[in-house]
Structure formats: structure tokens, C-alpha cells
Amino acid sequence: MTPETKARQHIDQKLEQAGWVIQDMRQLNLGAAAGVVVREYPTDTGPADYVLFVNRSPVGVIEAKKDTAGENLTATESQTERYATANLKWRKDDSPLRFLFEATGQIVRFTDNADPTPRSREIFHFFKPETLASWLAQPASLRRRLAEQMPALPELDLRGCQIKAVTGLEKSLAQNKPRALVHMATGAGKTFTAITSVYRLLKFGGAKCILFLVDTRNLGKQAHQEFMAYTPPDDGRKFTELYNVQRLASPTIDPHSQVCISTIQRMYSILSGEPIDESAEDVSLNEVQQTAKQQKQVRYNPAVPVETFDFIIIDECHRSIYNQWKQVLDYFDASLIGLTATPDRRTFGFFNENIVAEYTYEQSVADGVNVGYDVYEIVTEVTQKGAELKAKEWVDHRDRATRKKRWGETEEDVNYTGKELDKSVVNPSQIRQVIQAMKTAVETQIFPTRKETPKTLIFAKTDSHADDIIKLVREVYDQGNAFCKKVTYRAEEDADSILSSFRNDYNPRIAVTVDMIATGTDVKPLEVLLFMRDVRSKGYYEQMKGRGVRSLDGDSLKRVSNSADGAKTRFVLIDAVGVEKSLKTESRPLEKKPGVALKGLLQSVAMGSRDDDTVLSLANRLVRLAKQLDDKAQARIEKVSGGISVGELGKGLIAALDPDAIVQAALATAKAKGITRSEDTLLPEEIEAARAERVAAACEPFDKPELRDEIENARREREQIIDHINLDQVTFSGFSEQAEAQAKAVITTFADYIQQHKDEIAALGFFYQQPYQRRALTFDMLEDLHAHLSKPPLMLTTERLWSAYARVQTSAVKGADRKRQLTDLVSLLRFALGLDGELKPFADEVDKRFQTWIFRHNAQRGTSFTPEQTEWLRLMKDHIASSCSISRDDFDYAELAGKGGLQKAWGLFGKELDSLMNEMNAELVA
Length: 926
Prior knowledge:
The protein is of the alpha/beta class. The chain contains 35 helices and 27 strands. Helix 19 runs antiparallel to helix 25.
């Protein structure tokens, strides 16, 4: 089969899926269906690959190409145009055909010649015949209507930012730009603005149906309520009295709806054929990580053809345009309109940098649309440094999911860091101290005149963490159940009713959430946000902060907070985790050794223990663990084990000890040796040898220390230790300006340490040498120093030190917003010792010194370095910036090896290479 024939088979299949009947010329029967496609139709310029007929009239042409022509398919457009303007045999009308397609078996491009400036675009699939018929019946195409028929926008009751957004969007659509981004601060009325545009696109643009895409069911519900409340400026009726609005809760799209509100998860389910778990619509895409293994391909659905929607409005678009979700947007032939308060570079890139409106948070505060905020910090000893539980301490052990407790000894010393809090270890004292510090600060410093607790939202790490917080909030505030409630999708009480009470009623005063109020949910009376979870995504963090920014007039605020003295003027972000600073089984009884820890069983097997008790006990633990682990933990273990799941590892151990299987293995071995044996005549040593071989094979994976570590780590993640022993204490509580003293203390500690240990640690000794003696600083030396500095009680990581200097000596510190490298420790040391007057990233200093060094070299040499030599010197410089030095062995690493490695460098520099490396090591680092 030729590539052309194969491509046409795929084209035929797509046409048939879209409802077209395909015929050869000799089988021509235009009455066979409303839509007929005729192959090789004769024209006066030669036969056209396909001519499309709708209701017996020719309307379009398809130029077919083999798949390999896809990268150059636009070059075929002139050929398609030639057939569209040619005279079709037996046709009396010689007007050009309107609809032009170019197609391979994989790609389809489409041009509508009725557009004001016809421009081809890629589409996922061919249109249905009924669609082309409806377009032909309209006096103008959609894009012509957008360019020529949209009236001026009535500006009454619209904010300036909303006027700019609507007019900017309509201008973009008139220019036939396929993607547009509306960047508006939280609280500026993004949804109201979008509905204004939707109304105008339906009424004046003649749009057939518009998809309003969200990523949680809660946001869909809010959007639906806003559509129902919207009254257009030129009609006294509500939007939903003029147009049908469907909030999608099933796989069926109402053909009579003009607006469809759907989660992207549900639309993905409809198009991929993957059943949807209802709970998936409750979780923001910020909280979801999708793997390629889980991804299902979107495929053509005749019930939801690609032309179903003319426009797709993507709410919180910074979350919905990536990974497998993007397939939903690629499927529909629709203009994409993104709404977000927190775009990032990927968002700008996806929307082709077509920002039709930009209204920042700072502008919104200046306009009085939103309020500003202050940052108040709470730092505790355990949050900052972690703690240690000694082996044999009696503490509670709690199952993360069921919360069932057992009282037992710790199996070994447990050292935990602040980041492990509320994951593998829960320290009630730490939570209590943070809540108590918040209560004290709010009542004495933040809102000292209030008689009631201001409406407060606490961000927790997990549902289990949220329950711990609620219990301690009620205890610290000496209040009942109504005072503090959990608002998450998994809460036992109705989340919507609690959220409504939180907005409008006196109680609850404090709400604890994991995800539900994190983004997109408005609670205007909120005045305090307490972060007890860190967030790595800058966009997600901004969204979470956005819950507090909404302004509120005095009367409305007093309805829920009676002692407020006027309108809401600010909110306070209480940071208790450093979020402001962080870079964004079997039926038989198998347990033979219940007193031995899993770690001990793994170690015993690795050391060669093969007795039944040890092997069966390990098997039992693994089979039980397999039922408890989540998908992420299972996947980590499979990756290390070579694709074997933790459950299969356990079952393999059990199977290895199956007596019948051992006997059959012994018989097979005897037969292979030419010995005749039966079950009755097998020798004990033959049976034991077969057992040993089977058990050894089943135990072999546990020889890998990384697998043993991963299994033990997974067990620890599953079970939480309740630390009642290490009592926490607040080490800092104050507005962020007050943290300067803390930063100075960090700097002093660092300076004292390097002075006291200059003779003990090689890297420190290096900087106390004279410049000409500094020749041997290595990456290993830096790693050793960093290990000393970052351990308790110092905890002086490069991030923490850089932040401290940035706070105390702002004007002398550069690159504070960049991610730190280990080699930045060189810059910190030079600055602390007074060798440099400015603290800037090590890579920047290396760049500067390299420029001086190479300029001097070029001036001294008879001829300058060639461009190729210069490029190699830059590569060597970059390696020094990340690794502190360069040697011959380093040419085996990726960047240098990929350019030809040591052989190439030697060919360029010859014997001079070693002396150049020595010079660079000395001058770029010292």
C-alpha cells in the first residue's frame, strides 16, 4: 500500500465518522445523503481529490496528501484554491467553492473563503455536513460578523478594567486571532466581564454555543449563579431568560443550550471515553499531577463534533492548558479566551502573548477594588529545626486514613524536619503554639479593638492535618463546634452550606481548608489568612492569597463582624511555614516475627536470612503495605524494583515457599541432570536445594539498598507518629519587618562559625589563604562545608543565608529571587569575609571574572582565541560556575562530552589546555 493510499484510507474514515457518504465518480448518487463526498471529481484543471456536496450542491474541496507532507501542508493551499475556482464538469454555476480543506491521514487544515481575510487553520476533524449547510444559510460567516457587525460597548455600570477587557477581546476576535488572554486581578470581576462578552457574542456575533470551562465543580456552580444573576444593559430580562445555560453533569450536551458550563475533567472524560470519577471534579488541577501512563487520548465523538462550540472561555486558565487537559482545547474548532489573575510564562506562551487586557493586583488596590495586605510571621522551634524521638519512646501511632491509634514504642530513633510535620509525624504542640501565637497576635496587635475573632481561613496540608487544627483551634479559643469548621470536598457536613455560613453568618469564625477555598471562591469578609502549608507554585500561592483581597463596605462587614469600625481596608497573611520565602493479601497467618520492624526484616533478608519465619513475615508486611500505599508511593517502589509492585514482591516470597512448587522444581532439576525421581524418592538435600534456589530468586530484589530504603520510607509516609514528647515553643512572632533582627542573628552565627572552624574544614581554610595560594577548592570541599552548616542546630542553608543578607543588606545583595546553587556558598563566604563588597550569585561573579581573564589573554597573545576556542572556554567557564573547578575528567559530563569531549578540546588547545584550566580554576574562583 502506497503512503498516498494509506493517507486516503484515514481521510475516508474521518469523513465517514463525521456523517459523510463517500462515492467514486462511477457510483455518483447525490441523493444518497445530505452530505456526499465524491472522489476524483473531474474539473477543467484535472481531477480534484475530493469534492464535497451538501444537499446536492458542491460546497468544498479536499486536497489529500501523504502523511509525510504534513510539515509542509500549507504549501498545498494554492492547489486547493485552484480546484475550488475551477469549473466542475457538469456544473453550470462557476462560482468558487467556499470550504477548502488540505488533509493527510493525520492533519486537517481548513479555510473558509467567506471570512474577511481567509486564513487556514488546523482542525482536529472534518465538520459534519449539517454544519456546512447551516453556515451556508447564514448571510455572513462568524468571523465576518465579528469584524464588521459588533456595535459599540455600552459602558454604563462597567469598571474601566472591564471595558478594556471586553473591547480588547472583541478587537482581537475581529482580527481572527485564535487565542486571547484576559489578565485581571482577583476581585476585579473576571466572570462578570466574561458574561458581558458572552452576551454580546451571542446577540451580535451570532455565536451558536459557547463553552465556559472551569476546573472544579464549585467554580462551575459559582459561574452558573453569576449567569443567572446577570442582567444585560440593553434588556431588562436576566441572561438565563434570554439564553439557555446548561451546567454539564452528564455526558450529554443539550443541543438547545447557548452556553455550556463544564469542568475540563468532565469534557476530557466525554472525549477520551474514560469514565469520570465524580470526585475528580472537586479537586483543583493545582492539586493534580498526571502521568503519561494515566493519560488517555482524546478521540472524535460524533455526538460532540469539533464544531460544537464557537468560543471556549477558560476560567483560571493558568491551571487548565497543560498536560492531557490541553487535548480538550485542541479538539474543538473554537477561539480560546483565557481568564486568570495569576498568569505565568507558560500562560503567556500558550495564548501567543496576545494579552487583550491587563489589570494587576496593584492597580486593583489603587482603584479600591481590592485591599492590600500585611505579612505577620510565626516561627517555632520545631517548624524550623524539627525534633528527635528516641527509640523505645511510648507514643501514639495513628493510621493516616482511618485515624485509628495504637499505643506503642518507636522502633528506632526518629529525626524529623519541619517539612515532615503532619505527614510522617504530627506534633500537637507545634500546632497548638502556632494557633496560640495567632490568637495573641490578632487580639493584641493585628485587630486589637475587635470584640470577636475576625473571619479567618487556615490552609492545611491534608484532611488529616485539618482535623488536627480544628481540634486545637476549638481548644485554644475555648469555643464549641460552630466556631471552627472544615470546608473541604471531603468534609462530612455539606461544604456549600458551611461556606455560605462562613460568608454570611456570625459562625463559623474560623474555617480550615485544604483545597476547596484555595482558589476561585469568594469570601469577602475574610481578614486573616493563616498558612500552615507551604506552596511551591507561585501562581497557586497568589490564588490562595487572593481569597483575602476582596474589598467590602462597612455595613456588609459589620453584618458578620459587628465590632469592625468601618469598611475592610486590609487583610493579614500570617505565615507559619515560611511560605513567603520559599521558592515557589493472604489468608494464612504469615506474621511469624511481629516484634521485628519492617526495616529489620528487610535487612535480615539482605544479609542472607532465608528461614521461613523471616521470609513469611517480610511477605506479610509487604502484602499489607501494598493495600495501604497510594499510587505515588507504589510507583516509586516499582521504579526502584525494576517494575515489580510491592504486593508482587510479597507474593513472590510466599510463592517461593510453596511446598508443591518446591517439589516440582526439584523434580525438574533432577530430570535435567538425567536422574529419575518421583515425589517419594526425592532426597531431602534435593528438596532443600530447590527451596534455596526459589527463595534466593524471590529475595534477590532486596539486595538493592535503594529498594529497601524506598519500602521503609513508604511505610513511614503511611503511618504518622504522634509526638507528645517534644514540646514546641514560638521562636518568632511579628510582622515581617521585625524579622530583621532574626536575619542579623543568622548572619552573626554564620560569621562566628567560619571564624571558629577555619582550621578544621578544608573549604574555610581555602578562603583564609592568600590569593596566590588559592588553587584547590573542589566541589567535594563545598559539599562537606554545606553539610556542616545545614545540620541542626545551625540549619544555615544557602537559601536561608542569602535571604538573611537580602533582608539586612538589601542594596548589597543581588539575585535574591533566583534559585540557589551549592556553589553560591563561595559568594557567601567571600562576602562574609570581606573579600567582596557585594553579594551576588557565584555564576555571575564567574562570568565577570571570565570576561576580564579572556580579554587579558586576547590582548597578550599574538592572535586572539578563535570563535570555536572561545565557545569551548565558555563551556568550561559554565562548568566551573556549577562545580567550582574543571579537570580533564569533567570532559566526560554531558554538556562537554556532547560537544566532543576531551579529544575535541585537546585538538583545539593542545598542550595549552592544562595550563588554561589551571588558570581558570585559580582566577575565576579565588
